[in-house]
Design goal:
24% helix, globular, 9 strands, alpha+beta, 153 residues, two-stranded antiparallel sheet, five-stranded mixed beta sheet
């Protein structure tokens, strides 16, 4: 384990392979998006300045992207869910709205009022999710329809 200043956030961070299972953000020089999602349970992965970074909490990625996209090269954004039917779940929808250029109205539920739908899809824990430049957001599943882990290609 080592302590260093993160070039992404400017904060002092500790790094080590055993440190981050289910934590919020993780990166190393040699890790792949698949490993971040499968081994470390990250729900969002992105290639940031040539290194894969994984976030355990989707709103954290949204805030990072909004604050850093004019400084860092952010690409290959993927939302990971445990199952294929998780596509367009709430957290996939909020990243598509905040970063993918989608209109929140296409995710509205007829069980909620328009105001409640908008709040549900653009606010998390009382915070408004910032919008950022539009980029393609990929969707991948960790498991197939039968519940078996999808192997890395």
């Amino acid at each position: 384990m080592s302590t260093h200043i993160s070039p992404l956030t400017g904060e002092v961070v500790q790094s080590g392979e055993s440190l981050d299972v289910n934590g919020n953000v993780l990166t190393t020089d040699t890790i792949s998006a698949y490993e971040l999602a499968h081994k470390y349970n990250k729900s969002i992965t992105a290639l940031v300045n040539g290194q894969y970074v994984g976030w355990g909490y989707t709103p954290s990625f949204i805030h990072f992207k909004h604050n850093r996209e004019h400084i860092d090269d952010i690409s290959d954004i993927t939302y990971w869910h445990d199952f294929p039917h998780g596509e367009f779940c709430r957290y996939h929808a909020i990243v598509l709205i905040a970063c993918g250029g989608y209109d929140s109205k296409q995710f509205y539920s007829d069980r909620l009022s328009d105001q409640d739908n908008e709040r549900y899809l653009t606010h998390v824990r009382g915070s408004v999710l910032s919008k950022s430049k539009t980029q393609k957001i990929n969707f991948k599943s960790r498991k197939d329809k039968s519940g078996f882990t999808i192997k890395q290609n």
